[in-house]
């Protein structure tokens, strides 16, 4: 797809957003009260449900670690999540990579030493996919872990940024970053998924899969770290609102 | 068939290893790990479990490799003192690097050389490198007579036949001849007292294996010279 | 099979404290590679890479197959990686561990997804015949940084490989043998090289080309794949110690320097090998003439 279609001369994207617009991010906590913690995240047409079970006794003895808890991630794409109905194989290399990326991220973000010899299971279900699945999974898992009351070192907030290369014309900019890509953009552009942990904008996860110039990566990272901060604030707002609602229902607080 | 080059102790993570290039164009690496922990299913109370794994250079292991594995197991089982390492596993890994298989031009030409003899010679060197207890040393030779090809494995000291694998068309006399030639190729020269004679030049596969091991021992015992 | 042993507490403390003091066990600088060796086999497409004690062999081969029906103009390129017990007794046969999946994906993303090999040039007759190029990666000795060693091996083997020439007359395709016609090199669009970084504990120490022990003790890792034109093909930092974005960018710039060095090294070795081959062929020819 040529560049003009992804980004019009007026600077508008396929879905009418500007380069720095996030899609509408809807966050809700405790959607499924039977689990220890749950969250539903909707970002544009991407929709991901996350359920937390644990900390509990490990399902397998091999998962028991004497000094920390084990994080297990279970990631499933619903067969109806894409435009074509497709049942995905659980042994799909791409899915198992995503699973282990999420697992490694939260093994670091959760204070695992507080729950030795236990297991925390993060179950992720992708209900609908329209770009930014990994970022959505990370954000949903963070919220669900907070809902479950699992101690963490800080918020893990993820965003995707795509890079629309310039035409290489005289005096023209090298390219433009586009924030929070959708499916059409993800297929065409080099996309960086980046997650920060805590307030200082430190990067815990960074994944880039297509060719992008080194100079552009610097710009992409700057945009991503900045926007991840914004996503973190939105998540914090929702957590506080949810907390207050619970407190009100229990008859404590304001 | 002769060994063109052989090096030992080239992999740090294995207990013993050897890379061998034969004159038939086969290069391969053999590594030995063990005695080490064995999977409970394969544990044997009175002897070590011998596992041989062969990997081709292109693609994944198939029937050809499985056959080779079972041939190597039957060759090596009587050689290694498995009863010295009960409840353990000795693992021999063979990784093929190059294997030139000449195209069969006519029906009368002998079948292409197999990897078995090179793999066996490399395994023996790797086992010696890993200081695994062996009953004796063996040497394998490929011998082609007319339309038949024979892999003959003999004890380098006594010349006793350990294993033979033949392919193609051959008569009983030709097989006898192959065994005789294999014995000659595989044996090292011993003097009247039964000690191995040091011969610098010539000799068959057995002599070459002896030379490689001698070099290895000299290298390993360098520290004794105090230099 | 025996599990990979973790370093003992003493070893761990010793290595970490030396690292904080800016020293590595093998005396390298923090940003230095181990000695890299690259050798090619007799046949085309066999590369043997040694990075310190880590050793990886890549073998590239090609055969004519039918292209995928949804991509009639593209050839097929596959990379197979299998961690066998030869590399380390801890690797089991036949069962893919998570580490193995990640390693395979990383190599695949670095080389295949970044379209290093021009698959369109592998097409012979659209929709009917194309070349299938496969790279088999064999890990012989595991002493850390398998990704870099594997990437260098695959890239070098791809550049070294020559596929047989083909000629097309109407519907029939003739594959010429290597001696009949000069074999053709594959068209490589760019040369990606991986860079493994290991970060260590609280006040972050960044290392390049970690050994196995350093890998076992590290708190996080980042792999960047780049080509010599300054294009980033792949970044992978999954979890581990959170890094400052500025530090990350500094590491990428450092990686770029190393990538240029390694690319130049591969090119040098390829040229040497080529010269050796030419010399040998000339020698053979002159011998043949003398005999006549």
From TrEMBL, chain A:
It comes from the Eukaryota. One of its GO terms (cellular component) is nuclear exosome (RNase complex). InterPro entries: ExoRNase_PH_dom1, ExoRNase_PH_dom2_sf, PNPase/RNase_PH_dom_sf, Ribosomal_Su5_D2-typ_SF, RNase_PH. It is found in: Cytoplasm; Nucleus, Nucleolus. GO terms for biological process: nuclear mRNA surveillance; poly(A)-dependent snoRNA 3'-end processing; rRNA catabolic process; U4 snRNA 3'-end processing. CDD domains: RNase_PH_RRP41 (cd11370). Keywords: Cytoplasm, Exonuclease, Exosome, Hydrolase, Nuclease. Residues 22-151 form the Exoribonuclease phosphorolytic domain. This is Ribosomal RNA-processing protein 41. Belongs to the RNase PH family.
From TrEMBL, chain B:
GO terms for biological process: nuclear mRNA surveillance; poly(A)-dependent snoRNA 3'-end processing; rRNA catabolic process; rRNA processing; U4 snRNA 3'-end processing. It comes from Ascodesmis nigricans. SUPFAM superfamilies: Ribosomal protein S5 domain 2-like. GO terms for cellular component: cytoplasmic exosome (RNase complex); nuclear exosome (RNase complex); nucleolus. It is found in: Nucleus. This is Exoribonuclease phosphorolytic domain-containing protein. Belongs to the RNase PH family. The keyword Nucleus applies. It comes from the Eukaryota. Residues 4-130 form the Exoribonuclease phosphorolytic domain. Keywords: Exosome, Nucleus, rRNA processing. InterPro entries: ExoRNase_PH_dom1, PNPase/RNase_PH_dom_sf, Ribosomal_Su5_D2-typ_SF, RNase_PH. It holds the Pfam family RNase_PH. The keyword Nucleus applies. GO terms for molecular function: RNA binding.
From TrEMBL, chain C:
One of its GO terms (cellular component) is cytoplasmic exosome (RNase complex). Its main location: cytoplasm. The keyword Nucleus applies. InterPro entries: ExoRNase_PH_dom1, ExoRNase_PH_dom2, ExoRNase_PH_dom2_sf, Exosome_comp_Rrp42_subfam, PNPase/RNase_PH_dom_sf, Ribosomal_Su5_D2-typ_SF, Rrp45. One of its GO terms (biological process) is nuclear polyadenylation-dependent rRNA catabolic process. It is found in: Cytoplasm; Nucleus, Nucleolus. Residues 33-164, 207-255 form the Exoribonuclease phosphorolytic domain. GO terms for molecular function: mRNA 3'-UTR AU-rich region binding. Keywords: Cytoplasm, Exosome, Nucleus, RNA-binding, rRNA processing. PANTHER family: EXOSOME COMPLEX COMPONENT RRP45, EXOSOME COMPLEX EXONUCLEASE RIBOSOMAL RNA PROCESSING PROTEIN. Belongs to the RNase PH family. This is Exosome complex component RRP45. It comes from Ascodesmis nigricans.
């Amino acid at each position: 797809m040529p560049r003009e279609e992804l980004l019009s001369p007026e600077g508008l994207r396929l879905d009418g957003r500007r380069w720095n617009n996030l899609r509408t991010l809807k966050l809700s906590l405790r959607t499924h009260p039977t689990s220890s913690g749950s969250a539903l995240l909707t970002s544009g047409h991407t929709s991901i449900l996350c359920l937390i079970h644990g900390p509990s006794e490990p399902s397998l003895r091999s998962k028991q670690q004497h000094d920390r808890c084990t994080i297990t991630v279970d990631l499933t794409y619903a067969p109806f999540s894409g435009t074509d109905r497709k049942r995905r194989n659980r042994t799909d290399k791409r899915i198992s990579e995503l699973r282990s990326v999420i697992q490694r991220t939260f093994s670091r973000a959760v204070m695992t030493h507080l729950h030795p010899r236990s297991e925390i299971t993060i179950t992720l279900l992708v209900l609908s996919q329209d770009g930014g699945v990994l970022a959505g999974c990370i954000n949903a898992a963070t919220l669900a872990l907070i809902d479950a009351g699992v101690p963490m070192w800080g918020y893990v907030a993820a965003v995707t940024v795509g890079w629309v290369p310039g035409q290489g014309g005289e005096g023209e900019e090298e390219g433009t970053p586009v924030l929070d890509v959708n499916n059409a953009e993800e297929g065409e552009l080099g996309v960086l998924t980046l997650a920060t942990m805590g307030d200082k904008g430190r990067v815990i996860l960074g994944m880039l899969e297509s060719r992008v110039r080194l100079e552009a990566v610097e710009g992409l990272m700057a945009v991503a770290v900045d926007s991840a901060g914004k996503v973190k604030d939105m998540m914090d707002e929702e957590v506080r609102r949810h907390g207050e609602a619970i407190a009100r229902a229990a008859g404590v607080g304001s | 068939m002769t060994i063109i080059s052989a090096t030992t102790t080239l992999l740090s993570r294995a207990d013993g290893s050897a890379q061998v290039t034969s004159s038939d164009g086969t290069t391969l690496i053999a590594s030995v790990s063990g005695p080490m922990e064995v999977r409970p299913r394969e544990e044997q109370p009175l002897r070590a479990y011998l596992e041989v794994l062969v990997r081709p250079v292109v693609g994944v292991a198939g029937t050809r490799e499985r056959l080779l594995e079972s041939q190597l197991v039957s060759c090596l089982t009587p050689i290694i003192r498995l009863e010295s390492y009960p409840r353990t596993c000795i693992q021999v890994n063979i990784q093929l690097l190059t294997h030139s298989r000449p195209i069969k031009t006519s029906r009368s030409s002998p079948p292409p050389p197999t990897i078995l003899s090179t793999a066996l010679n490399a395994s023996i060197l790797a086992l010696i490198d890993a200081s695994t207890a062996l009953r004796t040393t063996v040497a394998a030779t490929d011998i082609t007579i007319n339309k038949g090809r024979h892999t003959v494995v003999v004890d380098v000291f006594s010349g006793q036949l350990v294993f033979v694998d033949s392919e193609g068309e051959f008569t009983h006399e030709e097989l006898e001849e192959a065994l005789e030639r294999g014995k000659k190729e595989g044996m090292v020269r011993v003097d009247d007292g039964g000690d191995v004679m040091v011969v610098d030049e010539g000799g068959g596969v057995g002599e070459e294996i002896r030379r490689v091991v001698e070099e290895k021992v000299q290298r390993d015992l360098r520290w004794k010279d105090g230099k | 099979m025996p599990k990979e042993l973790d370093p003992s507490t003493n070893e761990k403390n010793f290595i970490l404290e030396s690292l904080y003091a800016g020293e590595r066990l093998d005396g390298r600088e923090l940003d230095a590679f181990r000695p890299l060796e690259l050798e090619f086999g007799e046949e085309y497409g066999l590369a043997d890479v040694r990075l310190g004690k880590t050793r990886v062999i890549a073998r590239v081969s090609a055969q004519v197959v039918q292209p995928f029906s949804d991509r009639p103009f593209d050839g097929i390129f596959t990379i197979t990686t299998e961690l066998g017990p030869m590399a380390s007794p801890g690797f089991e046969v036949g069962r893919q561990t998570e580490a193995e999946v990640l390693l395979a994906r990383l190599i695949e993303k670095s080389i295949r997804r970044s379209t290093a090999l021009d698959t369109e040039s592998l097409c012979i007759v659209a929709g009917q015949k194309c070349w299938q190029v496969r790279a088999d990666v064999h890990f012989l000795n595991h002493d850390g940084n398998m990704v870099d060693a594997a990437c260098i091996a695959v890239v070098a083997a791809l550049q070294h490989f020559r596929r047989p020439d083909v000629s097309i007359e109407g519907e029939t395709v003739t594959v010429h043998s290597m001696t009949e016609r000069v074999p053709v090199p594959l068209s490589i669009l760019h040369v990606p090289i991986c860079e493994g970084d290991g970060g260590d504990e609280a006040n972050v120490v960044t290392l390049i080309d970690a050994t196995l022990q350093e890998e076992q003790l590290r708190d996080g890792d980042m792999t960047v794949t780049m080509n010599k034109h300054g294009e980033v093909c792949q970044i992978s930092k999954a979890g581990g110690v959170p890094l400052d974005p500025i530090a990350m960018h500094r590491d990428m710039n450092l990686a770029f320097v190393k990538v240029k060095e390694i690319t130049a090294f591969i090119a040098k070795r390829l040229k040497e090998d080529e010269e050796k081959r030419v010399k040998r062929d000339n020698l053979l020819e002159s011998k043949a003439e003398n005999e006549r």
